[in-house]
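A note from the maintainers: we've had questions about how concatenated examples are separated. There is no special marker in the raw files; a new sequence line simply starts the next protein. For clarity in this README we add a label.
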Amino acid sequence: MNKKDIFKLAKESRFIPGIYNYCDYWCERCLFTSRCLTYAIDSDDISDSAIHDLNNETFWNKMQSIFQQTAEIIIELAKEKGIDLNSLDMNFASDNMSLQMTEADNHELSKAASYYAKMADEWFESEYSLFERKEDEINTMLEIGIDGSLLRAKADSINDAVEVIQWYQHQINVKLLRAIMQDDIADTEESDNELQNDADGYTKIALIGMDRSIGAWGNLLEYFPEKTDSILDILLKLDRLRRKTEEHFPKARKFKRPGLDSIG
């Protein structure tokens, strides 16, 4: 898709402005792909599976093409808005960004989120055989004639739980880092009159990820009661992170994401 097509597509009324700013990027499970400009642009070449192969030259060529188109769009939009891109103090911006990132990394929420992600990784690595045994168990029951639909539903439920956990486990920290950095920026700017801010928006995504992950771990707990102790340990850490996050960002739950929480 070229630059002209992107501008033309962006003018279509079916798209919800900014819906892609506060999402979890899980397009396969999203109910609003038909109203998302980013999805429409990305899906232009979605049938070419090679584009999604990180080891394939086609993928990186596509990324370079998107970068060039985006750079041109930025220049044109800057001209329209009278912004002089060359006037920015990039050295200061770079140093300031590095400082903000360091401070965000050392924030208690970021540390807790990073620790949770590590716990999840270690749990799945150590319990890999657990899922193999469960698969063998389900296959054996299928062979002896036990209701296949119920067994397949059980297998799907386990797979869904694993997918949810692994989708959000690292994203939670990424979103919290962005929230913490935006919160620091807001503290230095006059933003008291803003009804909503980016920090709360990013935090809400992180909280949704925590909520869904807690539910998914609870699902695994039901299917693997012999692992109650290790799963409960993870759940306690994640629930504490959720509570601490709500305490630090008390308005995040009320943040209205365009389209996802309210059409507008």
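[label: protein 2]
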Amino acid sequence: MYLGNTLGSYVEYESVRCSVRLMVTAQQNGVRQWASEHKANSCGYELMADIDPDEFAGQTAQQALDLLDAQPPPAGKFEVIIDPQICGLLVHEAFGHNCEADAVWAGNSILEGKLGKPVAAELVTIIDDPTLPNANGSFKYDHEGVAAQRHVLVKDGILQGYLHNLETAARFGVEPNGAARAMGHMYSPLVRMSNTFIQPGEASLEEMIGDIKHGLYLKGGYWGYVFTARGQFTCNVQQAYDIHNGQLGQLYRNVNISGMTLETLQRVTAVGNDLQFRAGGTCGKGGQGVPVDTGGPHVRIHEVVVGGQQDLAGQ
């Protein structure tokens, strides 16, 4: 990338990214299910050196086969544990886009006027960090020539700040923080996320499962929808396991969760100690796509709305 501007910035650097993606479809007795796995980093083909092809493909194929025998999902409000992939999907789609200052300025963010106020449980700290080594959303300078920097969006449940480009920083009277990104030289830089995640806590997955009498363990999610102005979200879930008296049980398929973003974050009751990034890909906004990554630990949340076909809540 070569960049120069009238502020006196001149930046020249090379950015290399690589990704691998696998999708498996299984069908039996009129039921069709699919599973997907992928990995994306800011690196070259050495990405493949860390992947065992047989394990990578075998585990994905087994997930698709398992879903053929899974049951229709329950419906209602449940105590749930979300895995790092769904955690990342939630924090990026439902929360992160609300932190982009152009949405705040336009009146399309639920975080307008909430700086310094609680927006999540005290256990929750949310970071956007383009300086992480080799992560898919990392960069050295944004596309306005501002050096990349770590953004603490939420600390202990309190909103700390927004993501800015030069224009929104001037409008808000703050310093630019390197969050302007463009898909290419023919596009205007927009306020964008990079690598967004919930900071890990102290709980283990086993402890979180063991404390639940009746709930769900949710794994794998690939898409989400968010209405930033209203704070509504919907997230796809690939696999859901019943939790009964601290033990994993029945597998469900075709699950989704939905709710109000801030209410959901305020209902977090435990944050795991196992930070993972498993959702490297491309984020679209304003007709542009830029590389991002997102993740987090396992997180336990009280009273999440689960869409399904069986009314099992409260049993």
